[in-house]
Amino acid sequence: MNDKIQYVDKTSNIPLMGVDFLGIIDRGTNVIEFKPITLCNLKCKYCFVNSGNYDTNFIVDSNYLIEKVLDIVRIKGAYNLEIHFSPYGEILLYKELENLLKKLSDIKGISVISTQSNGLLLSKPVIKKLKKSNLTRINISLNSLKEETDCYLCNCTQYDVDKLIKNIYSLMNSNIQVLIAPVWFPGENDKDIEEIIEFVLNARNEGYSKSQLQIGIQKYLIYKTGRTLKKVQSKSWGYFYLYLSKLEKKFKIKLKLGPHDFGIHKRKRVSTLNLQKNDLLKIEIVSRGRWENECIGKINNSLGIKVLLKKPLVFSEELIGKIIEVKVIKANYKDNILTALFPHKL
Ligand code: SF4
Questions:
Q1: 245 alpha carbon to ligand 1 midpoint, in Å?
Q2: Span 280-342 CATH architecture
Q3: Ligand 1 center to residue 39 CA distance, Å?
Q4: Which residue among 9, 43, 165, 188 has the highest number of C-beta atoms inside a 10 angstrom radius?
Q5: Could you identify the atom of ligand 1 that is nearest to the CA of residue 43?
């Protein structure tokens, strides 16, 4: 882990929307995604966001997030909203979590608070705090019940599966829903996925309900900027769903989960600037990024943009406050995540 940390609060001048790795993401549904931290306790070999070895990590102030989410709730309507923590890192490393969860659960209209986690930092006291702060569901990325396989996939020397399983039971006994979310690495953990399904079925036979313990198998995705497992190929979506169908038949369990299963539905989107690929834009550089060839630009008070610095340019403090013209290279309307390039004329 690197020591360089950039804190993001109201005085930082860093907007909370628009950048993929921090702040808040609105995908036009009733789910509002939170990314308050980029630190991770693991460095998984398959991590598609490349977490665990960023040059600079980011931690967002909880009050700043609360202020922004109140605006978003007003726009979307104060009913049936879900806050989902999906950091480019591990949420249990976020020191303000308890406080933030409590404040979120006090906001009218927020009925579900869920999070992703690798689960390794769970303990009885942590679970007690999560329960007290009204966490509804935790999605745990457990890829195998064998320590050796987990150590290999997560690139670590110790992975206490027994402790994690005990904590899964403690979560369920505390009425926090658990969704085990293994990634299927074709040819690597096929047997392990079946063992996890059997574990879920056994727990359900012990009396835990389908909502208390779910399983959501994830497709292995490969991104240019992420880490990948050698020799493991990503399959097409068609192949993946066929694989799930076969498992559903074999184990008589529902494995294909969609937005409906989580009550996700379309809702008003926070207004965007309708930026398009290749648009030229004047922005102010307000922060370094995770890597030396990345920085954060400010478009307006609520919208930021990730700026990739073209080689050989690297970030230096002198760039802060500079107004530059960048070229938009990615503008995704579904989630309003923006990326630009600088310099764009060479
Ligand atoms: S996959 Fe998750 S747990 Fe593993 S390094 Fe990436 S963010 Fe951390």
A1: 27
A2: Beta Barrel (2.40)
A3: 9
A4: 188
A5: 5
Strand ranges across the sheet with 110-117: 23-26, 31-35, 81-85, 110-117, 137-140, 177-180, 213-215
Coil, helix or strand for 277? coil
30, 67 Cβ separation under 8 angstroms: no
For domain 5-262, give the fold: TIM Barrel (3.20.20)
Domain with CATH 2.40.50.140 in the chain: 280-342
Q: Ligand 1 centre from 52 Cα, in Å?
A: 7
The preferred substitution site among 1, 2, 118 for testing ligand 1, maximizing ligand atoms within 8 Å of CB, is: 118
Helices (H), ranges, the chain: 62-76, 97-105, 124-132, 147-154, 161-173, 190-205, 237-251
The pLDDT tens digits for 90-131 are 999 999 999 999 999 999 999 999 999 999 999 999 999 999
Please give the single-letter amino acid code of residue 234.
S
Which residues of the chain does CATH 3.20.20.70 include?
Answer: 5-262
User: What is the distance between the alpha carbons of residues 338 and 329, in angstroms, rounded to a whole number?
Assistant: 8
Distance CA 306, CA 265 (A): 28
Reported as a single tens digit per residue, the pLDDT across 32-89 is 999 999 999 999 999 999 999 899 999 999 999 999 999 999 999 999 999 999 999 9
What sign results for the dihedral spanned by CA atoms 326, 329, 335, 337?
Answer: negative
Q: How far apart are CA 344 and CA 320, in angstroms?
A: 19
Output phi, psi for 164, to 5 deg: -65, -40
How many Cβ atoms from other residues are within 10 Å of residue 35's Cβ? 23
Distance CA(183)–CA(92), nearest Å, equals: 20
Q: What is the C-alpha R_g of the chain? A: 21
User: Which residue, by CA, sits nearest to atom 1 of ligand 1?
Assistant: 47
Residue with CA nearest ligand 1 atom 6: 47
> Would you tell me the crossing angle of helices 97-105 and 62-76 to the nearest 10 degrees?
30
